[in-house]
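Weekly modeling sync, notes
Attendees: S.R. (lead), two postdocs, one rotation student

Agenda item 3: backlog of single-chain predictions. S.R. asked that every request posted to the team notebook include the full sequence so nobody has to chase files. The rotation student volunteered to paste the first one in as an example of the format we agreed on. Action items at the bottom.

Example entry:
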Amino acid sequence: MSATKAGRRIVLWRHGQTSWNLERRFQGSTDIELTEAGLAQARRAARLLASLRPDAIVASDLQRAAATAAELAAITGLPVAHDAALRETYAGEWQGLTHDEIVAKYGEQYAAWKRGEPVRRGGGELETEVADRAAPVVLRHADALAPNGTLVVVSHGGTIRTTIGRLLGLEPRHWEGLGGLSNCCWSVLGEGARGWRLLEHNAGTLPEPVLGDDD
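Predicted structure, as returned to the notebook:
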């Protein structure tokens, strides 16, 4: 890593609340909009994140992430680059089901996933495939930053977790250990002499419950 590039930061920001989050319904790549509360969360979080003086914003093109990113763009005046590669994990038959329905219908598949085994939940993507598409987008935008620059990535719980795991060099079976992000909370990666490291995780102000972790 070039010494001139050290000091960059990546802020990975989860979208605001949706009705499916409240229902503990797996969203995946389904395009669900923010609730009024979710929009208020985005506005509040945007005011905090604007104080970091971000240099660039990139977001998933799903409306819950795009609308969240738009609140930060409105304050900072920065454009938002939208990229479908930052969408949430496609989870096939799981999408639209509640947590209880998934456990009832796909109990062994769910248990295997929680054990850290590579599982195509609902016939969808592997977590490593999500990282394969999302992490390069994040790195490409980070590489365009000036020294000590800050990139804000607006995405989804599962995609953020897999991207952090990949950038930290963790084995996929350990990614679940990172834990979930609450709606409109964020994690911060900083760049040092030996690569990216986790500086903050699930940050906001007061702790809030994690709803719909992987969506």
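Discussion: group reviewed the output briefly. The radius of gyration is 16 Å.
Action items: rotation student to repeat for the remaining queue; S.R. to check formatting next week.
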